[in-house]
Specification:
The complex is a heterodimer of chains A (about 575) and B (about 160).
Chain A (H helix, E strand, L loop, with lengths): L15 E2 L4 H26 L10 H22 L1 E4 L3 E6 L5 E6 L3 E8 L1 H4 L3 E8 L10 E8 H11 L23 E5 L13 H19 L3 H10 L4 H10 L1 H28 L3 E4 L5 E5 L4 E6 L4 E9 H5 L2 E8 L7 H7 L6 E2 H11 L16 H33 L3 H12 L3 H8 L4 H23 L1 E4 L3 E6 L3 E8 L3 E8 L1 H6 L1 E8 L5 E8 H11 L1 H4 L3 E4 L6 H4 L6
Antiparallel strand pairs in A: 1-2, 2-3, 3-4, 5-6, 5-11, 6-7, 8-9, 9-10, 10-11, 12-13, 12-17, 13-14, 15-16, 16-17, 18-19, 19-20
Helix pairs in contact in A: 1-2, 5-8, 12-15, 13-14
Chain B lengths: L4 E4 L4 E2 L3 H27 L4 H29 L1 E4 L3 E7 L3 E7 L3 E7 L2 H5 L2 E8 L6 E7 H17 L6
Antiparallel strand pairs in B: 2-3, 3-4, 4-5, 6-7, 7-8
Helix pairs in contact in B: 1-2
Classes of the chains: A alpha+beta (about 575), B alpha+beta (about 160).
Chain lengths: ~575, ~160
């Protein structure tokens, strides 16, 4: 077990170490983050009226910190050993507390190979092995090797999901994006799809975030950044600009929004290109689905075909209104720490045309017709009534808030005007709020509340229309959501139980939330606000033998509840 | 589909009657704690005494109401049933929940006895599946019965094939 063996292939049974280069990759990665921060802090210190020697501190301490981290990393690296035998994958680690983790190979559900830019420079990658065990308890069900050489990573990816005898000849190098034998390509990046990237509700928000960050930095430097910039560009002073802005408010507000939009589009496009460049989805001979993508951080994710229990078609509102959609996997062994990371990991496609996304879903699930094609059953009217009630309550809240804001508005105009505008001039050089408060009418808040009410009721209708559930020959389908409409097709054989919940309001209206529980994906897929009878009928149809002993028929109801979507009172 | 409406029938068995006393005690403890916080503050903080006393009264009344209503209500809702093929439970009071899990998907079965449950001779049975929806819990069973249920479940799950995912 010496640390000097450098192997490209995974010989069964032999203990191997991580790549010795990984220490330097970690150092590079850490330095990439810390050194720029240290430089920024130095510049800030130099600009602020502090003693000059403060400016000497950040960079040396950052270097010291990186060096210490490198040393610890060096010690850690020497202790980590892993091996893959016919039955198990094992890993030993730990400086002080020794850990020995062992995963039966039949439990391996996914292999994720990622190479961030700084690791790629060293020819390294991270391998994360996911198992279906202890689903839901963050991170404990996976094993991570950080870093191994790219050849080792490729070898592990190929071998670990392969059932049967020893992982033999893993020597031939697949290389990046190379087509392996017997592979069926399911999807490949069409650069036109990037046009869908800015179609998120966050685009303006992101632009605003960038501006707010700049304003924040400016405020922290005591306004020096702005002074420097305006001198450099020969801009007039903040006060003059402020006066100009307030004079041209009607022209400038739309212009600003447009600029924010452009900024947001640039950021979202950049993120999409970095994430989805070189995107390719393929199914290998043994059924494993393999995703490769990424410009700077190249990612390769393999999911065992048997563990891909379904797909989710995700249509956020803005994307949906331009006819786009994206596909996510519903698979066991993809959980990674928290929910957000899991969601990021289960993405199987970028935003793409809805029709193509549906076709891709069908291919992924190996069905000839789209699993989403059977017309979803309509939920009872009572579900709409519930949503109207919520919208009504939200509107009342908005009216109350409008009242409070009107009061604040009057105060800003009179009592607080002086202090507030001076603070604003400090922070962003323009007294925007106070200026707007002067210009805008006080009744505007109530107009906004009325508008909010209209939107709330429109949202309620959309949310009701989004509800749906159905049964496909091999899958059960649920759909819900207005802001983000998600349609999930889950293999009927992957259902491992049912949960029915009813709030007091739902009981009064004869509604229920009927959820299929499963080991895959989010673990719980819900037909929200179905009629109780309708929901039970659906569950029984989807998994016939499970619920049957616990279901009874109610004859005295008279109505043919289920198919018409009429509610069934208990 | 036929013109009949479907619904879930209640599971066959009620939980132990002693569970009512257990829930009452538990609720009393919570209510006492919730009342004590503003109550103690009212004694210590002179200027806001009126509002703190008001908060104490509201917390006390609400706690008392829950303590009177909840245990009886729960006793009517909480039911369980173990068949050869599945575990079926209902629980809750205002918000109610029904759960079904097939034997072939059960991963582990445990009993649990908290100190409070032990004083009433009760146990909870927890049935875990691979789902993130959380385990199925049958709480408020007589201790001997809980042990029996666990034995039966263990036996059945062991004879049922499948890797539970």
């Amino acid at each position: 077990m010496s640390g000097h063996e450098e192997t490209g292939n995974t010989t069964p049974g032999r203990w191997q170490g991580l790549s010795p280069l990984s220490v330097w990759a970690n150092t590079a990665g850490g330095a990439l983050v810390i050194v720029p921060i240290a430089i920024a802090v130095t510049v800030t210190f130099a600009l602020t009226p502090m003693d000059w020697w403060w400016a000497l501190l950040p960079v040396p301490s950052a270097v010291l910190f990186v060096a210490a981290a490198t040393y610890v990393d060096l010690l850690r690296l020497r202790r980590i050993r892993y091996r893959v035998t016919d039955e198990r994958m094992e890993m030993r680690s730990g400086l002080i507390a020794k850990a020995h983790r062992s995963i039966p190979r039949e439990r391996v559900r996914s292999v994720d190979v990622a190479a961030p830019l700084y690791a790629r420079a060293f020819g390294l990658c991270t391998v994360t092995v996911g198992t279906g065990e202890s689903a839901g308890t963050g991170g404990a069900d996976q094993l991570q090797l950080q870093f191994v050489t790219r050849e080792q990573g490729e070898g592990l990816r190929r071998d670990l999901l392969q059932r049967g005898p020893a992982p033999g000849s893993a020597d031939e190098d697949g290389g990046e994006g190379a087509v392996e034998e017997g592979e069926e390509e399911l999807a490949r990046l069409d650069p036109r799809w990037f046009a869908y990237a800015p179609a998120t509700g966050a685009t303006i928000g992101i632009g605003f975030g960038v501006l707010a960050t700049l304003a924040g930095i400016n405020a922290q430097m005591g306004g020096r950044g702005w002074e420097w910039l305006s001198q450099w560009l020969g801009l007039p002073s903040g006060a003059e600009i402020g006066a100009f802005i307030l004079a041209q408010l009607l022209l400038l507000v739309p212009l600003t929004l447009f600029a924010l939009l452009l900024l947001g589009v640039a950021v979202t496009l950049a993120v999409a290109v970095e994430t989805w460049w070189d995107y390719r989805l393929a199914r290998q001979e043994d059924g494993t689905v393999r995703l490769t993508r990424g410009l700077l951080t190249s990612v390769s994710l393999s999911v065992e075909g048997r563990r891909l229990n379904g797909v989710a078609l995700r249509e956020p509102f803005v994307l949906r209104s331009v006819g786009g959609a994206e596909i996510r996997a519903v698979a066991t062994g993809l959980s990674a720490g928290d929910e957000q990371k899991t969601a990021a990991k289960s993405r199987l496609s970028p935003a793409m045309p809805g029709r193509k996304a549906r076709a891709l879903a069908a291919t992924l699930l190996r069905t000839s017709d789209s699993p989403f094609s059977p017309a979803p059953r309509v939920h009872p009217r009572a579900a709409l009534r519930r949503r109207f009630t919520r919208a009504g309550i939200a509107t009342l809240g908005a009216v109350a808030a409008a009242g409070a804001l009107t009061w604040v508005h009057v105060q800003v105009r009179q009592a607080w005007a002086g202090t507030l505008s001076s603070v604003e001039v400090d922070v962003m050089a323009v007294p925007l709020t106070t200026g707007t408060a002067e210009a805008a009418p006080v009744w505007g808040w109530f107009a906004a509340a009325a508008l909010f009410g209209v939107v709330a009721f429109w949202y309620a209708v959309g949310s009701y229309r989004g509800l749906g559930h159905g049964v496909h020959p091999r899958h059960l389908v649920v759909r819900r959501g207005m802001a983000v409409r998600t349609t999930v097709a889950l293999e009927r054989s992957a259902v491992i139980g049912w949960r029915v919940t009813r709030s007091p309001f739902q009981r009064r209206l004869g509604l229920a939330d009927v959820s299929a529980t499963t080991a895959a994906g989010e673990g719980l897929y819900t037909a929200a606000d179905v009629g109780l009878g309708q929901g039970v009928a659906w569950a029984e149809e989807a998994v016939p033998e499970l619920l049957a002993p616990f279901v009874e028929r109610v004859d005295d109801e008279g109505g043919d509840g289920s198919e018409e979507g009429r509610s069934v009172l208990p | 589909m036929s013109s009949d409406a479907l619904r879930l029938r209640p599971p066959r068995h009620r939980v132990d009657r002693r569970a009512i006393r257990w829930w009452t005690t538990r609720s009393l403890v919570t209510a006492a704690a919730a009342t004590a916080v503003p109550g103690v503050a009212a004694v210590l903080v002179e200027p806001a005494r009126f509002w703190l006393l008001l908060a104490t009264a509201v917390a006390g009344l609400a706690g008392l109401a829950v303590t009177v209503v909840m245990p009886q209500w729960r006793y009517r809702v909480h039911r369980w049933e173990v068949t050869d093929t599945a575990v079926y439970t209902s629980s809750g009071w205002l918000w109610q929940e029904w759960r079904v899990a097939p034997m072939s998907r059960i991963q582990t079965v445990d009993t649990e006895r908290g100190p409070l449950q032990r004083t009433f001779g009760l146990s909870s049975v927890t049935v875990t599946t691979a789902s993130a929806a959380g385990p199925i819990e049958i709480s408020g069973l007589a201790h001997e019965l809980a042990t029996e249920v666990v034995d039966q479940l263990t036996e059945t799950t062991e004879s049922t094939p499948g890797d539970a995912t």
